[in-house]
Amino acid sequence: MIGPNVWKMWLVLICTAGQVIPDKSVVFVHYDAYLDDRKEPFDSTRLRRKPFKFLLGDGNLIPGLEMGIKTMKKGELSRIMVHPSYAFGEMGCPPRIPANAEILYEVQIINFITGKDAVEFEEMSPEAQKQASFEKIVGVYHCENQLATDLFRRSMYKPAISRYRHVANLLQDFSVANEEEDKQRNGYLLKLYLNLSVCYLNVQNPQKGLIYADLALKLDPGNVKGLFRMGKALYLTGSYDRAEHYLHLAKKQNPFDKSITQAIKELEQKRRVHKDWEKMFCQKMFGSGETKLKSDVTFEEPDDFVMCIEEQIKEFLESDEKEFSFPPSFTESQLEVVKYFARTFELAFVSKIMGTEKINKIAKRKCS
């Protein structure tokens, strides 16, 4: 029971309906903390523009504030004057907080996620976790998925990936008891795979984005988000024909989606550029009939391709250009040819994803 001297004053500014926050919930709050009648707070999440997140009941707050928050609901805004014995006590927290200070908190509950199952699961031994019920695993999923989604919305993609993958592995490894549990699990996994796919696309890793989009489509072949993300991942890896196939399937499912329409326009533009390069490539290839391949290295690509790359690089060396780019659609075996001649002529080689663009290029090294 809360003692009579915990709060000297409690004023509810915004009253809301709904559930009181359960213990072991992950809570997101905004607060301003004041000393006595001072007008400026000594601590404020609003000034930092970032809500404070904590596990209710874990002892991360001063006792008086935690006791107060336990009685609140989502959206509620209150002012709480906390007695020194339930705040920073006789010692205070110099230099900001003097001894025996009463603290006025203006606190609002932004959101909370019921995390009891996730907390209890983490406290279990590995053996007990293997024996956990499906209901417990589902509870862990709901908590971890919401936390990961919160990270995603704040563009914190790598931490979000970690949480999404953690709970996806739990669900994948769990032995379901019947078809109903299997159907439910697949529904959760579909959401996780789609979320992981878009996260990997945002961190410029389309190869893994492709893997998770493919896993999503294995569960739901007509899923429009899965089709779209598969198309985006293929486009970023230079597989234009396959990308076009999946993007048009997505557009057929959702013809008015602006993101899908824009992706198709970008793909068509890239393909036009690629066709122009292929035309130039063929002209150079047929114009180099007398060129002999001098390298004894064995490549997977045909000799005509190797000789054309060698000629292009030699022309680049004789030019005033500092960089020379190759098409983003080049395969790994084609890039091996480029890498070989880059080493031979002491050039720098770069292959990476920047934004939505795959870059393959060589560059002249600066003179020391």
Automatic annotation (TrEMBL):
Keywords annotated in UniProt: Isomerase, Repeat, Rotamase, Signal, TPR repeat
Domain PPIase FKBP-type per the UniProt entry, residue ranges: 24-113
SMART domains: TPR (SM00028)
Any one GO CC term of the record: cytoplasm
Gene3D superfamilies the record matches: 3.10.50.40, R3H-like domain, Tetratricopeptide repeat domain
Protein name: peptidylprolyl isomerase
EC number per UniProt: 5.2.1.8
GO terms of biological process kind: piRNA processing; spermatogenesis
Keyword Transferase assigned: no
Lineage of origin: Eukaryota, Metazoa, Ecdysozoa, Arthropoda, Chelicerata
Reaction catalysis annotation: [protein]-peptidylproline (omega=180) = [protein]-peptidylproline (omega=0)
Signal sequence residues: 1-22
Keyword Repeat carried by entry: yes
Membership in a protein family: Belongs to the FKBP6 family.
GO molecular function, one term: Hsp90 protein binding
